[in-house]
Amino acid sequence: MSQEEERDITRRSVLKTGAAMAGLTAAGGRASAESTASYWYDGRGSGASWRDTAQSRIESNRKANLDVTVVDSNGNAVDGATVDVEMQSHEFNFGTAVNAWALKNKGDAYKNHLQEDFNYTTIEAGLKAKNWETGAKDNVRWAIPWLNDHGFDVRGHAALWETWDMMHMDSDSDDYYQNMSASEINQTVKDKIRDRVSEFSGQVRDWDMQNHPKWRTNIRNYIADRTSRNQVSYPPEWWGVADDADPNANMGINEMDILQNYPDHISKNDYLAWWINHQQNNGNDVEGIGMMSHCNINRLTGIPKVLDILDRFGQFGIPIYISELHITLDNWPNKSWSEASQEEKDAQREYLRDFVTACFSHSAVETIVHWTFWEGLAWRQTSALYGEDWTRRDHGQMWRDLIYDQWWTDEQGWTDSSGNHTTNGFKGNYKVTASKDGESAATWVWLDDGGASTQLTLDLGTNFDPNKEYKIESVHSGKVLDVADRSEQDGGNIQQWTDYGNANQRWYIREVGNDKYEIEAAHSGKVLDVEGWSDQDGGNVQQWGDNDTANQRWYITDGDGNGEYKIESVHSGKVLDVADWSEQDGGNIQQWTDHGNANQRWRIE
Hints:
By secondary structure, the chain is α/β, with parallel strands linked by helices.
């Protein structure tokens, strides 16, 4: 049989299965001309209509505004400050399954790649009752605190998995069910749930409380057959035990084939919806809907169909988590990833791109967990994002490109005249840095649904425009600094006077270094000067040609941040003062020891 014939049989088989399930093609809609490609699925084409819609939803659902205001130490807006907005982590959970033994024992490569590509983890096997009771305890007890300490939220998998083997009640267990009554079996299940959930209270944020509620019903069926109770009456009891063991943990349902194109796909969707209602009707809060998503490139659900299913379950108002995503290649496990054709790898990479994009765009989805990431310990090796030598595979690179490139915000901008800059960024944790004139300040900001705002202060001294003419107004009298008689000569006296907007009442304020300023009369070009280098209270203030001396240099500070400045002589340490608290035109300006009085405070505009 030729390769083309094999592809055609595969394609016709998938079409037949999908039509039987939903009255559609296997891709979930009418096949396009592009569907002659190998491993085709609806929505794979570059022009597929879902793409623009998903991008719009990502912009709406996954981003928010981060408003940054930059001020100087006096609370004045800083124009033209550089603002760097650097994302540190996502709010959305991009996770993987962690092997607790490997995390503890496999060295830095396992830990480093985990931290590089993910922000959320599921304990792959160590919290299953059988694994927990047969040697996993020490590794899990080491792994979960390590994960918490390194910023990972953790999901426990799984508190309840209704097979005798997974609950460690088979012939290899001391709790061998055939030696128990129905009530003893029921109590044993409760004890096993309580044991694991309570031990990690406050450390495991989420639990797969019930794994495979439709696919695995062995225990409830067995004990119901030996009592008068209906078999579906038992799981609500077990949920209640888990909630009591850790009231703060989120308890979820986890089921397979909800998003996958398998023959019993529809029945499992319907049963999952019924089961959610059943738990809620029995007083249990279902706090997560897990969809396992074990995919194979020979049976890929069309992206529009994926979105339709997410829409259906999104109506519950319960967070959806893609709990066990992986995409295996054709003819696994008999063929390794390196032996696969480029067509297979392309399909794997592109389906990961499209499936993850669709899920990320949907407002009901809060977590996507790629089930195992390293081939060395992967359940299905061809799906691993890394090869055994830690080489990143094609679809592994796609995972990283999406999360840390396309959906990552790392921007630079500048404040406007109001000191503001706004970035529309992906929700998560940010480092925000503002800088100007060699000064910088930084802070950490969490950006979520409501957006976020922050203010940074730069120690720029007093932020005066050296080319602007300022008036300097006494706080107590409302009159302004004035060069008497509009003198242009050295020694012209400085007084206060009603503001008429004249040039002898306007001043240039220029920083000359080390937070020191010269104050220059706009009409004469001469600067404020303490006459005779006086260092006494009452020393007169005049104008004089600029000699670059300390009696012509001033500190200008707004210590209270209220826009009222003291103007302090560099050489004497005394401040500009309206003599005798005068409120009259012609009141003299002198220097005096600072007492914080209104006749020693000035508004500069």
